[in-house]
Design a protein that fits this description.
The complex is a heterodimer of chains A (110) and B (113). Chain A is mostly beta strands and 110 residues long. Chain A has no helices and eleven strands. Chain A is 0% helix and 54% strand. In chain B, a hairpin with a 3-residue loop joins strand 4 and strand 5. The chains are: A mainly beta (110), B mainly beta (113). Chains A and B meet through strand 5 and strand 9 of A and strand 4 and strand 5 of B.
Amino acid sequence: RKEVEQDPGPFNVPEGATVAFNCTYSNSASQSFFWYRQDCRKEPKLLMSVYSSGNEDGRFTAQLNRASQYISLLIRDSKLSDSATYLCVVPDTGGFKTIFGAGTRLFVKA
Amino acid sequence: NAGVTQTPKFQVLKTGQSMTLQCAQDMNHEYMSWYRQDPGMGLRLIHYSVGAGITDQGEVPNGYNVSRSTTEDFPLRLLSAAPSQTSVYFCASRSGGRADTQYFGPGTRLTVL
């Protein structure tokens, strides 16, 4: 099993839709989690951090399920500008390294 | 602040050539890392550093060397380029601790012929 796994998609949704991505991780000792956004041919940028059960920022909600070892990202009222690849990131227990999922591609259509 | 800068943005090498990818940050971050990104594989850690003079290997270190003589700079050296090293390379930094945000440079797109 990969350390961090994501559904690669692509997810094709219309504007205004709600879409959710899941990310599973293998290290049960992991304490913090991140979602990064990467636009085409650009560098990744932090979208959200998740330290406890979840986090919400406007239209974006991240939730953590420790028992099942997955985190999810929910995007409500999708905008064209949300089209990007969303990367799930899990630091290793030592804290020095971070493990990136392969990413989930989202296309929001007018 | 310029953040994390990388040079060059694009590079084409012939098999067997060597080169250095430059990375610099002006945020006084202790942690710096090099990743490569290939289609469908996400970012894979090549080497990382937890401070000046301290480096360690990541997931895919073979064929690459690093050094960290200053807090600001973390160059990545390709010793003898191979076509398998064709990739996009990202440098990243963070202030410290597993919970901190990583800041990425704009990337270097390398093609090895």
